[in-house]
């Protein structure tokens, strides 16, 4: 078996040597050398063609630019460039073939490496098998030599002593051990035979791969030969065509040269004429800079004068435009007054730290530089424009806002009813505009100060009495903020005198004579008003607050008596329950606020569409504002706007509602004046102290009975009431 294995290994080594010699054959290298030689020959032919073309170009440089055969020459050059491109394509194909040959050579090298690795593995396997075979032969030889001695010992030990028997047993056990070793060596020999079979299978697979590679190499070689033959034919054909065309072109070029020589002889007189013209133009060009400078100076002077005229015209037009804009605004206000429209002012509060940071706190409101009544809102990427009667930017002060409304306030002294109410979402600045702060008061306190100033100015001819009432609508219940029992619910009724006016029986009315009295009344009203903290406003108004100022006047010379009423309303802000975080009682308050504001919207819609029935009684708020919204009052709405990006939805709703309110026509306003004798100074005055502390005044808006008990008020509210009583 060992000899057979050696013979097989020898045959495999010879087969591998034969395959290696076949793989090392020079076929691929020969093909590559042939391709390189062919490429070099093509390059030499291309260089020869390029030399001929250069010669043709040198000959073509002689004709002048006006040659009649320039177009043919251009066509020939284009054809030459086309031939050059074809030659470049041929070179590219040759490069691709060289690359393919190189790839095939690399694949053959990889096959050789794999064969070398397999041969090395086979040599190592053969060496290992040979060593194991030698070990097995030595073991078998030693086993064959040992049993004869044992038999001999057995025969000779039969008559010996006990020691000889013991040695015999040891020999027998050793013989058994050696037989086991022989069995193990036979098993190893079987494994070696199996490994040899697997090696033979591997060699067969390698041979199959080599055959496949040889077939692929032959196929590639055939394709390369065919492509080379086709390229050779195309190259020869292109060279022949180029040569024939070049000969034709050369003949045409010679003919063109003859024509050009003739043309040159005829062009010499024309050249002399052109030279004379050129000299004259040169003299003109030399004198041109001076002429140009003179022209530029005159042009600059004319342009400067024209610009100055345009500027003066623009300034005059701008002055006229502004004057016309003021006149238009004045006429519009007069038209609004005659029609009885509700005037609508807009005020935009500044961005505050409560709005947060980032994109949600960005400013979404812009203004028109030429028109202070136009406001632009950027909502969901689209700009929406709104036109009101006046728009106040964030930098507008309380004084500037009041200057626009003071004309309405002073008309109250002349006997007109005036209503100013602030509308907008919660946190938009309504309370700040109406009430302000102690250092910077709002419309309420400034209006009363203005009334006192006007009253003092007319004190020589008129006697005036100014009284103040304060109420709030909380959860659809009307409450007296200046009464002893602020939680008591009041009702709205018609005046019994048949005038159709509304009044609130039991509503406390204080007479005020100075700014100090005003501050005390405001402080007392603030103590009783309902405000709470929400996610949208730290001091959110939870009710609609109404400040009612009544001005009664008497002209001592004519006996003319006037009665004017000024309603200053701070509406509670509309809010989204999800954003404000209202729960429990706050949620119920928000529902009542939104319901009353919705009723106000229904009233505005009915007035705008001129419906026969206006639903004033759907809410205590609209019922109380019926006098101000039914055509017997000068009404102004101050819509408050938040410029933050996160509030654009609420801002859009507020501005749309403001536009609807602005289009409502209430009709001309009537003045409340009558000629009558003034009974006494006491009838002019209203309750000067607390209700119940003195006889009740005449008039339906005062309390006509004493309260049974002062009610559970705080010590601060009680002290303020006591000060008011003392002042009265």
UniProtKB/TrEMBL annotation:
Keywords (A to Z) from UniProt: ATP-binding, Cell junction, Coiled coil, Cytoplasm, Cytoplasmic vesicle, Cytoskeleton, Membrane, Microtubule, Motor protein, Nucleotide-binding, Phosphoprotein
CDD domains for this protein: KISc_C_terminal
Record-linked InterPro entries: Kinesin-like_fam, Kinesin_motor_CS, Kinesin_motor_dom, Kinesin_motor_dom_sf, P-loop_NTPase
Keyword set includes Ubl conjugation: no
ATP-binding is among the record's keywords: yes
Basic residues composition bias: residue spans: 719-728
Region spans: Disordered: 677-728
Gene3D superfamilies: Kinesin motor domain (3.40.850.10)
Gene Ontology BP annotations: microtubule-based movement
GO cellular component: adherens junction; centrosome; cytoplasmic vesicle membrane; kinesin complex; microtubule
SMART domains: KISc
Coiled-coil annotated residue ranges, if any: 2-146, 189-241
Residues holding ATP: 424-431
Recorded GO MF terms: ATP binding; microtubule binding; microtubule motor activity
Domain (Kinesin motor): residue spans on this chain: 341-664
Comp. bias intervals (Low complexity): 689-704
UniProt-annotated location(s): Cell junction, Adherens junction; Cytoplasm, Cytoskeleton, Microtubule organizing center, Centrosome; Cytoplasmic vesicle membrane
Record Pfam families: Kinesin
Membrane topology: Peripheral membrane protein
Function: Minus-end microtubule-dependent motor protein. Involved in apically targeted transport. Required for zonula adherens maintenance.
Classification via PANTHER family: KINESIN-LIKE PROTEIN KIFC3, KINESIN-LIKE PROTEIN KLP-3
Protein family: Belongs to the TRAFAC class myosin-kinesin ATPase superfamily. Kinesin family.
Protein name: Kinesin-like protein
Organism annotation: Lophotis ruficrista
Source species taxonomy: Eukaryota, Metazoa, Chordata, Craniata, Vertebrata
Gene transcribed to yield this protein: Kifc3
């Amino acid at each position: 078996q060992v000899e057979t294995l050696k013979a097989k290994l020898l045959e495999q080594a010879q087969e591998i040597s034969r395959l290696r010699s076949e793989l090392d054959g020079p076929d691929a290298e020969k093909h590559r050398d042939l391709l390189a030689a062919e490429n070099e020959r093509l390059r030499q032919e291309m260089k020869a063609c390029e030399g001929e073309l250069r010669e043709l170009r040198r000959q073509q440089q002689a004709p002048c630019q006006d040659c009649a055969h320039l177009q043919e020459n251009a066509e020939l050059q284009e054809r030459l460039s086309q031939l050059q491109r074809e030659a470049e394509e041929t070179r590219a194909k040759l490069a691709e073939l060289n690359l393919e040959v190189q790839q095939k050579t690399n694949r053959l090298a990889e096959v050789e490496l794999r064969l070398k690795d397999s041969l090395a593995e086979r040599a190592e396997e053969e060496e290992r098998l040979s060593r194991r075979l030698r070990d097995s032969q030595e073991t078998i030889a030693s086993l064959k030599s040992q049993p004869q001695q044992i038999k001999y010992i057995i025969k000779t030990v039969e008559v010996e002593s006990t020691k000889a028997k013991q040695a015999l047993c040891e020999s027998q056990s050793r013989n058994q051990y050696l037989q086991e070793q022989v069995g193990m060596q036979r098993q190893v020999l079987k494994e070696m035979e199996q490994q040899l079979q697997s090696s033979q299978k591997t060699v067969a697979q390698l041979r199959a791969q080599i055959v496949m590679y040889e077939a692929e190499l032959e196929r590639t070689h055939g394709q390369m030969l065919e492509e080379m033959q086709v390229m050779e034919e195309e190259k020869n054909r292109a060279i022949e065509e180029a040569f024939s065309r070049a000969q034709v072109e050369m003949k045409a070029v010679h003919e063109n040269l003859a024509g050009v020589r003739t043309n040159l002889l005829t062009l010499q007189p024309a050249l002399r004429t052109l030279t004379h013209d050129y000299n004259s133009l040169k003299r003109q060009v030399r004198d041109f800079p001076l002429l140009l400078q003179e022209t530029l100076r005159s042009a600059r002077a004319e342009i400067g004068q024209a610009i100055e005229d345009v500027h003066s015209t623009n300034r005059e037009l701008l002055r006229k435009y502004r004057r016309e804009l003021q006149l238009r605004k004045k006429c519009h206000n007069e038209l609004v007054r005659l029609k009885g429209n509700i005037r609508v002012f807009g005020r935009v509060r500044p961005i505050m730290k409560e709005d947060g940071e980032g994109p949600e706190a960005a400013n979404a409101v812009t203004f028109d530089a030429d028109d202070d009544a136009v406001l632009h809102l950027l909502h969901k990427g689209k700009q929406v424009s709104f036109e009101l009667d006046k728009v106040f930017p964030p930098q507008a002060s309380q004084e500037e806002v009041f200057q626009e409304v003071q004309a309405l306030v002073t008309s109250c002294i002349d006997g007109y009813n005036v209503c100013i109410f602030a509308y907008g979402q919660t946190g938009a600045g309504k309370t700040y505009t109406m009430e302000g702060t102690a250092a910077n008061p709002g419309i309420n306190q400034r209006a009363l100060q203005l009334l006192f100033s006007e009253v003092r100015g007319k004190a020589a001819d008129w006697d005036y009495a100014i009284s103040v009432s304060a109420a709030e609508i909380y959860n659809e219940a009307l409450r007296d903020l200046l009464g002893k029992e602020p939680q008591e619910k009041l009702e709205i009724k018609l005046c019994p005198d048949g005038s159709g006016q509304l009044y609130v029986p039991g509503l406390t009315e204080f007479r005020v004579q100075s700014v100090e009295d005003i501050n005390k009344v405001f402080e007392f009203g603030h103590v009783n008003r309902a405000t709470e903290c929400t996610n949208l406003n730290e001091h959110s108004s939870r009710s609609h607050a109404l400040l009612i100022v009544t001005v009664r006047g008497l002209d001592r010379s004519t006996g003319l008596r006037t009665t004017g009423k000024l309603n200053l309303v701070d509406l509670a802000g509309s809010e989204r329950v999800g954003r404000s975080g209202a729960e429990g009682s706050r949620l119920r308050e928000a529902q009542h606020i939104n319901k009353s504001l919705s009723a106000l919207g229904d009233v505005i819609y009915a007035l705008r569409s001129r419906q026969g029935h206006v639903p004033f009684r759907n809410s205590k708020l609209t019922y109380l504002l019926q006098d101000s919204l039914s055509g017997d009052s000068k009404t102004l709405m101050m819509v408050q706007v938040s410029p933050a990006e996160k509030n654009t939805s609420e801002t859009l709703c507020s501005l749309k509602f403001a536009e609807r309110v602005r289009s409502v026509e209430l009709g001309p306003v009537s003045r409340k004046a009558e000629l009558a004798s003034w009974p006494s100074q006491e009838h002019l005055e209203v309750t000067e102290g607390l209700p119940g502390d003195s006889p009740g005044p005449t008039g339906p808006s005062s309390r006509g009975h004493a309260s049974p008990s002062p009610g559970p008020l705080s010590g601060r509210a009680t002290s303020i009431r006591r000060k008011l009583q003392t002042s009265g």
